[in-house]
Amino acid sequence: MDHKRIEWLFLIIFSLIDLYLAFEIFNSPVQLNNSETGTASSNARVEMRADGISLPRNLSSKSGSGYYLAATKNNYLAKKVSSLTGVNASYSKSDKILTATPQTEVAVGLTKGQIASSLTKFKNDENNVPYGKQFKYEPNLSSGNSFVFVQTSSYGNIYDDDATLTFTVKKGRLVKYEETYIGAVSPVRELQSTISAWRAIYAMYTDQELANNTRVTEIKLGYTKMTTVRGNVILIPSWLVWVKNKESGNVTLKRVNAFNGEVLQTNTTYNLDD
Amino acid sequence: MKFKNNFADVLLLIATAFAIGLSIILWTTIMTSDQRFSHIDQQATTQTTKNRVSTKSLYDLYSPSSVYGYRKGKLCQLYDEKHNLSLEFINEFKTVNLATPTIVSTSTAKYREMLDNRNYLQLAYPDEVTFSLFDKKIKMKSGYKEFSRIFLSSSNRVIYFGNDKTKTVYRMEVSKANFNRLRKYANHASSAREVSLVQLRDGYSVYYKNSIKANVYSYLVTHQTSSYYVNRLLGTSGVSSKNNKNGSTTYTLSYYNRLKTPAKGSHIYTYTHYEKGNSSSATRRLENVVYYIRRIGLSEQDLHFFDSDGKTILYTNFVEGIPVFSTGDALQITTRYTSEAVKIAFNNTNLQIPIPYDGESVTLPDTASVISALTNRGISQNSIQKIVVGFEEQRDNNRKNLIDLVPTYYIKIYGEWKSFDGWKDALNDSYSITNSEGTK
Question: For this UniProt entry, which segments traverse the membrane (chain B) (predicted)?
Fold first, then answer.
């Protein structure tokens, strides 16, 4: 009888051990596939929230496409100064900046909407602004009396100091404008896929480029300068991310390479000319 | 009554013995499973190294490399300067609801009919990929898991898949597909080169009927340092190192991870991760590389699947649909799976910035004349596995960060990729060895 009891005891104990071991085996996943990325991604959203980082609603997770673009360096605006009959213009060859003041008073209104509309009409006249129709108002870069327009192309808007039209307005009147022009752009290689807006934010977060207690106020895909090589400016599709510090209210603009997710710091120049 | 008692005793004995035996088996399984330990190792590494953000999806890595269609009744390789046809396809393919395909035919004649059918737009992979890579729900029986070509008809409800090696044609009913834009772009493609598909040992290779003019491209390149890879793959603590005679260094972390840096003059690193069960299925092998690419921190921008010999899978950068071969005919990534480990050889050269095209080009002969030049030198046609036009990486001696990509023919023979000139040199060497041995 004792022998039988021991046998029952063994059966119960070992059955329990079996259950435990079987559970252990099925519960030890080794996932090397890309599902890991999805989990990391959803965890990041929770972590960002915990760090006080606010993101725009409906941040897209859809990837897109873009080109490497090239523009030939040249003094495009210098040739245009003489044809500007509506403004008094001068061109600085060293800075490649055209500065102009209106010959007659130009009223632009008082509200931001009115001013943007008036300046758009003004810059579309070739007698006032060379290549003016190629520029588009960018409210995120404008502040106070400064109204900034960025150069456009059929591939996307260009966000660079060398492709900007900045108007200075005072008391409802246009004071002056400064213009830089990068020239016509063309693709360097074939169309390639780009990362989504969410991936760009995630890249910034993992690279510690998103500080705690900040708000991402705007994210846009545009072209920015990567480097200058052999007299050509190379532009890449970039996510432009405007980040506002919740405490100080300061806004900073950050750039993420939309091809590979690298946070872009400064432009570099390679001189490969013989 | 006694019989019943005896029977119950025997049952109890058997059940107890079974429970004890099962415990031993389960315990042994757990203790001998490397996966458990490597899992621990992976978690530790994830904590010490910052994960690079995955920039591209599995779809981008496994996108078709070339597109073919008929122009004036002739098969042409299509390329469009403005629209990337392969990218257009894969972006749409991502959104399609796939279903389990049915086998339409397995005969060579029927397969040839598909290839010759002018109504289909063909998207070709450089080698076989599995259906389940794109949808885990697709379960196919052994021998019918892979495809290498997609045939798009004018219908958005059906996609045909083909396997160039087995000559199997599959039919898949799909939903939410709209390839109209791709068809439009393909119809207006800026370049259409007349080609024929010729059966070689590993399937159909593209033969250019006429000599072709191909562009030479230049890139600014960057190279990551050894410490970057050591840090990413092995972490910062518990790593031991040993210098080798050829100038390389081998770094080891525990018994499971090893990284060998390049010998002098080379850019090829070798990372070995010991883990059982890595190579369990073709899909798993194709999937796993995505994890390793991200973990190593390689640029994924131009990287695509290139070639597979079962447990050896090759990936390389593609520029305008043409694969790039590094110096010494190496490819960007070579993964080798064994029952015990996965070994990844990778090149640290990153094609960082494309330099605007300056008009330089080379003229390559028609493909048939290249093949006959090889067969005339003693290579049998049966041993030629594949032939492709690839970019040969030529480094500028004066500027270390500049490379030129020069188009040339690459041929796979005896499982090895070499340029046309490379094979000619190799054959000359073997001739001279044979001749010198013969004269002795």
Answer: 7-30
Query: Using a CB-CB distance cutoff of 8 angstroms, which residues of chain B are in contact with residue A234?
Result: 353-354, 356
Do the Cβ atoms of A234 and B354 come within 8 Å?
Answer: yes
Query: What span, in angstroms and rounded, lies between the C-alpha atoms of B419 and B439?
Result: 30
pLDDT in tens, A117-139: 999 999 999 999 999 999 999 99
Cα–Cα distance for residue pair B180/B91, rounded to 1 Å: 13
Nearest to A202 by CA among B52, B238, B158: B52
3-state secondary structure B72-138: CCEEEEEECCCCCHHHHHHHHHCCCECCCCEEEECCHHHHHHHHHCCCCEEEEEEEEEEHHHCCCCC
CA-wise closest residue to B300 among A238, A237, A258: A258
Closest Cα to residue A197, out of A225, A218, A224?
A: A218
- Per-window interface: A 164-223 vs B, CB < 8 A: 187-193, 195, 199, 202-203, 206-207
According to the CATH classification, is domain A40-69+186-270 in 1.10.472.80?
no
Q: Do domains A40-69+186-270 and A75-181 have the same CATH topology?
A: no
**A131: alpha, beta or left, given left = phi > 0 and alpha = psi -120 to 50?**
left
| CATH architecture of residue range(s) B361-439 | Roll (3.10)
| CATH 3.30.310.160 placement within chain B | 219-354
- ipTM exceeding cut-off 0.85 for this assembly: no
What is the topology classification, in CATH, of domain A75-181? TATA-Binding Protein (3.30.310)
Query: pTM here?
Result: 0.80
- CATH number belonging to domain B219-354: 3.30.310.160
d(CA B435, CA B440): 9
What residue spans in chain B does CATH classification 3.10.450 cover?
361-439
pLDDT in tens, B222-266: 888 999 999 989 988 888 888 888 888 999 988 889 999 998 878
